[in-house]
Backbone:
């Protein structure tokens, strides 16, 4: 199949950037979208041009590295699918496909489709963990966890940290990412001692990193390749209110 | 002298494991190590390369202990290391099922599963620590699967008869890695760990015979930086990508380990690679990686091919009596649940007989029709729904309607840098953890044991043993302009300049694909004397062409993904040669290493314990020059070698 691509090219962080058109004549419908870019890049290299830089690693939808907006959708139009598992059979022969980086103030472009998502690590550093030094753990069965809590925790822990939620959000908010981590840890009995401290610290770091506020558009959950439920944001708001207005957070 | 005329050097011996009863060796080793005074720990610098289960756990734990840790990963975040893709689970001898499991049984299963090519002391320690790992991960909030009573659920896995595998749906690796990653980020926040994502290690700094630092490249700016320390830990994963197509992430590479090998660390059992039987077949030349379908599918799926060669009917039209359920036929007692190496080889055999299915003929059916009839579609959906969806997403075929097509793919490498019981390589001060070392799985790894080993090494072994080295040795500060440091930096610069200056006519990927074909054809599921000799001619030729004809656009002073790949492929072109030599010299079949010349009458792997009961640790002597073989004799005091049988 033949595909026309319009790809965002930007040499480095200071370059203004522009859309550039390419044609791939010999695409196959069994290719993943990233394999299509591989084919394009092989051609570009041989013709003496710079290949399109893009982030990718596991190519099986779990590492969260791949990050691009395809036809206006983070990870492309296919529901619950990272762009590495998006296949060309979903596009018509002769289509024109637009490819851009994830765009958000807190995710500056490094080159072409590669962005800096280091702000996510900073949010986790602020409290996205349970403090349990190695060796200090009690026997695993000493604390039963009701299955419903364990399942809800897992559904939130499923977040791959790709940033599609931020790219989809008109405000560039990372509330879905935040809410997912708070729900993962907050559903566990082990997560309770630091619960109120955690939410305040993570939210403050989120705001300082330049992510926007949440206005409940729900675009994040629609774009999320792992279908993190929107109600994790309710959990975030619930915990934040209890910690601050509710006075649960005890200053040490 | 040709490359295959290697010489045999002095044996290599593990001096770190205590003698005596195996049950107390680890206890006694822990008591025997010298300790670093807590006040002194903050003056000691440790470098950890890699942030998967082993590296992430090690960096976090060393940071908690108070050391100054510097951690590097090539990914944009430590959370993305490839441990994240592990699906099935993690073994632990908790015996929560009351099904007769014990530390000794896990030890026994692992030594046997590894086809008697692993070191007993290490494996026993691994089995002991397995229990602590589950405790630790639960304390971190890892959302393991639970039963209605709130207690942890377990399931069974290939090759064993107890239910000891803990899991978090099909994403156990992800959840365990996030636990380690969060512990790591907690230490970053505490100031004990300094994290450098998007940094790739390109050289090891060895000063006066000791590992004292690394040279890394900042993959965003291209800047070459040297980091010095008192000890270095490599937790840089396996080398399955030497085959180009594998289930590894695209970035997985051997460079850090290979650079250490070139600086004197012995590389052990490089030919021990694991081919996983249930992956989605290759669909065309564009294929960039292979996707694993969980081993658990073999619990209900039946594997078959048509009995007749050239039967092109659609699978539904082929009646039962014209199908060959070859695993059930050959292994009636284990059936579709034989271990990975055996299932893979059986699939290859029927494809070699031209009975393979799918457009390429390289595939076999994994059919759920009987399971759907027996259990109902709903029950099958509940068990495997997410896997079926993934299959459909990739292939466009609905496995509820037509059988899946699967084919074996490279998945894991048991070989790696040689380490002693303390996980120290043959370079003092260089420690190696996780898949990057060779230590625990022998010639074949059992399912759900990789996660166990990574976390055992990282959380519980290395943080103890490394202290012994740090407390026992005077490690004077290394000057940044010491000749060894300057030389290491210059070597990195020169190599990058050379790569960029070639400006030939072939892309890096084209070389990588060609190397992958050579490795798969001659050093894949079945290896023969002739094939390996052929590969040993082809690889050096390809390597010469690479260094004369590769084309890398751009410069070194920017994000340059072609340059990154070129450095990795250059090292694979050396490793591949060593793998073939190792496979050639080991004239026996064991575990994942199947030599066509060494099989029983009915085609099973035939070990040769008399001549090959050793780990082969290779010493580097120069590119393309014959390496020196150092043997570590393996003693089996507890589990006595027998022929594995799954009939």
Residues:
């Amino acid at each position: 199949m033949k595909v026309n691509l319009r790809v965002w090219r930007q040499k480095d962080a200071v370059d203004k950037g522009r859309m550039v058109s390419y044609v791939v004549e010999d695409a196959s419908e069994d290719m993943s979208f990233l394999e299509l870019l591989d084919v394009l890049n092989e051609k570009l290299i041989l013709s003496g041009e710079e290949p399109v830089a893009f982030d990718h690693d596991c190519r099986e939808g779990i590492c969260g590295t791949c990050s691009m907006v395809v036809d206006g959708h983070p990870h492309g139009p296919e529901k619950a699918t990272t762009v590495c598992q998006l296949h060309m059979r979903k596009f018509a022969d002769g289509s024109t496909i637009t490819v851009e980086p994830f765009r958000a103030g807190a995710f500056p472009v490094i080159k072409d489709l590669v962005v800096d998502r280091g702000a996510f690590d900073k949010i986790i550093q602020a409290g996205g963990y349970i403090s349990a030094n190695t060796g200090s753990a009690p026997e695993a069965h000493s604390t039963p966890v009701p299955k419903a809590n364990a399942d809800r925790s897992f559904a939130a822990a499923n977040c791959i940290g790709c940033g599609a939620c931020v790219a989809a959000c008109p405000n560039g908010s990372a509330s879905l990412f935040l809410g997912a981590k708070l729900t993962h840890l907050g559903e566990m009995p082990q997560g309770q001692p630091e619960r109120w401290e955690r939410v305040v610290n993570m939210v403050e770091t989120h705001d300082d990193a330049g992510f926007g506020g949440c206005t409940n558009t729900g675009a994040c959950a629609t774009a999320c390749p792992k279908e993190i439920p929107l109600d994790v944001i309710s959990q975030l708001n619930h915990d934040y209110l209890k910690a601050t207005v509710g006075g649960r957070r005890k200053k040490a | 002298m040709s490359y295959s005329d290697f010489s045999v050097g002095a044996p290599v011996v593990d001096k770190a494991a205590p003698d005596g009863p195996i049950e107390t060796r680890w206890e006694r080793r822990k008591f025997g190590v010298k300790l670093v005074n807590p006040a002194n720990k903050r003056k000691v610098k440790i470098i950890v390369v890699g942030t998967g289960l082993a590296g992430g756990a090690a960096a976090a734990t060393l940071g908690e202990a108070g050391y100054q840790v510097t951690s590097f990963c090539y990914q944009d975040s430590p959370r993305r290391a490839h441990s994240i893709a592990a699906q099935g689970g993690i073994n632990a001898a908790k015996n929560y099922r009351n099904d007769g499991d014990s530390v000794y049984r896990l030890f026994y299963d692992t030594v046997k599963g590894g086809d008697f090519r692993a070191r007993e002391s290490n494996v026993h320690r691994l089995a002991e620590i397995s229990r602590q790992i589950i405790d630790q991960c639960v304390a971190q909030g890892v959302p393991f699967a639970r039963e209605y009573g709130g207690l942890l659920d377990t399931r069974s896995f290939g090759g064993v008869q107890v239910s000891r595998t803990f899991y978090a749906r099909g994403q156990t690796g992800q959840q365990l890695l996030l636990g380690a990653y969060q512990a790591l980020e907690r230490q970053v926040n505490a100031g004990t760990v300094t994290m450098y994502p998007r940094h790739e290690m390109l050289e090891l700094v060895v000063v006066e015979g000791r590992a004292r630092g690394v040279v890394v490249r900042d993959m965003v700016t291209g800047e070459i930086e040297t980091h010095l320390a008192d000890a270095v830990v490599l937790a840089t994963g396996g080398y399955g990508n030497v085959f180009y197509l594998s289930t590894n992430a695209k970035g997985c590479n051997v460079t850090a380990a290979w650079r250490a090998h070139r600086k004197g660390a012995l590389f052990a059992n490089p030919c021990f690679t694991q081919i996983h039987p249930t992956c989605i077949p290759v669909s065309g030349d564009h294929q960039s990686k292979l996707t694993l379908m969980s081993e658990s599918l073999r619990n209900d799926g039946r594997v078959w091919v048509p009995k007749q060669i050239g039967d092109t009917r659609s699978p539904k039209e082929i009646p039962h009596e014209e199908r060959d359920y070859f695993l059930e036929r050959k292994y009636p007692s284990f059936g579709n649940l034989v271990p990975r190496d055996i299932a893979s080889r059986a699939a290859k055999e029927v494809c070699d007989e031209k009975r393979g299915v799918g457009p390429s003929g390289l595939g076999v059916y994994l059919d759920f029709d009987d399971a759907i009839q027996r259990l109902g579609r709903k029950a099958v959906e509940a068990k495997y729904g997410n896997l079926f969806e993934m299959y459909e997403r990739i292939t466009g075929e609905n496995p509820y309607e037509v059988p899946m097509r699967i084919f074996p793919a490279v998945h894991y490498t048991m070989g790696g840098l040689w380490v002693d019981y303390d996980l120290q390589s043959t370079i003092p001060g260089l420690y190696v953890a996780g898949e990057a070392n060779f230590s625990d799985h022998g010639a074949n790894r059992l399912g759900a044991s990789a996660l166990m080993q990574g976390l055992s090494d990282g959380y519980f072994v290395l943080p103890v043993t490394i202290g012994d080295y740090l407390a026992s040795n005077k490690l004077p500060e290394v000057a940044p302009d010491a000749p060894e440091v300057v030389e290491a930096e210059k070597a990195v610069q020169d190599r990058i300049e050379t790569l960029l200056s070639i400006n030939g006519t072939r892309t890096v990927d084209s070389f990588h694909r060609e190397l992958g074909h050579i490795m798969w054809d001659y050093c894949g599921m079945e290896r023969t004397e002739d094939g390996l000799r052929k590969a040993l001619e082809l690889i050096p030729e390809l390597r010469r062409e690479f260094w004369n004809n590769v084309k890398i656009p751009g410069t070194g002073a920017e994000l340059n993904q072609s340059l990154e790949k070129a450095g990795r492929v250059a090292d694979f072109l050396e490793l591949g040669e060593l793998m073939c030599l190792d496979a050639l010299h080991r004239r026996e079949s064991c575990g994942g290493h199947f030599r066509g010349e060494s099989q029983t009458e009915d085609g099973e792997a035939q070990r040769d314990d008399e001549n090959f009961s050793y780990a082969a640790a290779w010493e580097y002597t120069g590119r393309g020059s014959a390496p020196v073989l150092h043997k570590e004799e393996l003693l089996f005091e507890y589990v006595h070698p027998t022929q594995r049988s799954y009939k």
Remarks:
- Chain B has a mean pLDDT of 95.
- Chain B has three domains: 7-272+414-472, 276-410, 483-612.
- Residues 351 and 362 of chain B are 6 Å apart (CA to CA).
- The domain at 483-612 of chain B is CATH 1.20.58.100 (Methane Monooxygenase Hydroxylase; Chain G, domain 1).
